[in-house]
From TrEMBL:
One of its GO terms (cellular component) is cytosol. This is Rid family detoxifying hydrolase. Keywords: Hydrolase. The keyword Hydrolase applies. GO terms for molecular function: deaminase activity. Belongs to the RutC family. It comes from Salinimicrobium profundisediminis.
Amino acid sequence: MKTIIKTKDAPAPIGAYNQAVLSGNTLYISGQIAINPVNGELQQETIEEETEQVMRNLKAILTAAEMDFENVLKSSIFISDMNNFGRINAVYTKYFNEETAPARETVEVANLPKFVNVEISMIATK
């Protein structure tokens, strides 16, 4: 059985998917980009601001599922330019305890939705 997780504190899906799906104790969070859920606009002044908005969106979804970043088992980070990795990683790292951080991959891709610079998805468990 699956439970759809929805929150107004993260952007509404822009396609045929949900913000997250809970199956048993495992939460699958769809890739999040830097859309501000309040005004629907992309936050892209800097790569740091963009990454912060992505992480806030992920946090809102985790909270809606009664979880937090300590529950995250795996992150997938998609970036449009590997030269931004250090700056993205500096923001991402603030949200995790280094000793209990999740598994992760970071992949450079040709394009992302709305031509953003970073998209992150996560898998978490209770």
